[in-house]
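__Record contents__

***
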Amino acid sequence: MDYSFNLYNKLAPDGICLALKKSTPEGASPVILCIGSDLSVGDSLGPVTGTKLKQQLAGLNCYVYGTLAKPITAHEVKYMNDFLRLTHPASPIIAIDAAVGNAGDIGLIRVAGRGLRPGSGANKRLAKVGDVSVMGIIAEQSVFNYSLFSATRLNVVYKMSEIIADGVTSFVLDYLRNMPYRADLLNASFL
């Protein structure tokens, strides 16, 4: 099932947290893969969100891949799939990426209980990644999606990244808090 949250809904972070709880398979601590590039505003949703998550989840037993300092682009996903299967075999993977959609969908954040295909908005055929996906719709789907990515407003990407990071952080903290053998990994300030 897919869940959608509007960028301007104050309850969107809570909704994202609840949608992740319903969509994420149980296993080891979740791994978060933020896909995108810092070279284009429209494609920077993943790295900006990854940077925020690294800060918010610092010191916890949670892996975040893809930040502004070390972005994971769509082309690197095929290598990341193998790496994640070997390094985190029991962990559910939450994939975060920017997406294109209908004009009325710009500003929506979608959580789905399945992986995503990075680069599909730019007509690339790449491998699917993740067990759960979080996609921020940043532009209208068009034949010329590259021009739309560069015309995307940074404010929209930044607000979406804040909402996604807050929702994912709440999910991870709840996940770790409710695992009896993982509760000791939380700092007292998070409880």
